[in-house]
Every structure is written in structure tokens, then in C-alpha cells.
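so im writing up the methods section and need the Ribosomal RNA small subunit methyltransferase D record in one place, dumping it here so i stop losing it
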Amino acid sequence: MSGRIRIIGGQWRGRKLAVPYAPGLRPTGDRARETLFNWLQAQVPGARCLDLFAGTGALGLEALSRGAASSVFVERDRRLAGRLREIAGDWPGGDRMEVVQGDVLRWLGTDERSFDLVFIDPPFSDSLQGRVLEALVDGGHLASGARVYVEQDARDPEIDPGERYELLRSKTLGEVRLTLLAVS
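--- predicted struct ---
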């Protein structure tokens, strides 16, 4: 897939992001982002965000556009991380972005910060959602009242919130399931 997606709300509304071809890259579409940010509208202003498996950065950039204080983007692909660094240097307010090029689980094992909003959208074939949810809690990465968004293939079993999370919302849009969790 290649093409463009656009930021749909806030100060960067209408700005376009290039979507280069990269294996497993599947940017969150406009409809899913609109649904997600309707769910999160009260939590976004001033939030410290973490965009895991960032890809194009659409989720973290949408949050920043809507008033989040900062966003850390973690992306393994060097080219995609480089593109996010270019955006950070070019867009007004890009100084609120931090881009980490590396493996998500390894990074979560070394970083000690906590976040208010976390976006988890790995390549569906990797099935990393559950491991990342555990690593977030185990590493103390979730602030009090944190919200965690998980995107997965609609055909996969639904996320089990277990004892560590509370299921707030879940919706299927086409082939994608959107799940919003809170820390228990």
C-alpha cells in the first residue's frame, strides 16, 4: 500500500501524511481514528502519549494535533522512523515529538516513563498485542487513569482485559477491531 492519509482534527487538520510501502504497514484509517478520538476527546488535551509500532505516526500525530502535550513514537523500521523525525522538524509543534527507532518490547524494557494514552497497532501477523499490554503494566508505563488503544484483526480473538485492565469500548470496522482499555 502507498498513498496518503490526512490528519482529521485539531491544529494540523487537513495535513497529509505519505504512506510508503512497507511490509505490515497498515495505517489506521480516517473512520477508525475518528471513532477513537471521539472516545478519547476528554483525555487528549495535555496527555503524554506513546505511539507503539508507529508506522506513519497517524495516531500520535492526531493526538498532538488535538492538544496532547507530547508523544513518543516507537518504530522499528529505520525509514519510517526517519520520516517521523522529518515531520518533527518541519511541522509547527513538532518539538513535542520524540522518535525512537527500535524494537517496541525491548524499548519498553528499558524506558521508565509513564504515559496517559498509549496506542498499540502492530502488524497483525505479529500478534504482539497481549505481550505489549503485559509489558506496559510490568514496566510501570501507565499513569493513573491511563487509556490504552489496541487495534487488531477482527478475526482474532477479542482482547481479554484480565485483572490488569478494564474494557471501556470495542468496535469492529470492516476487518479491524478497535479496543479501548483502562488500567484496573
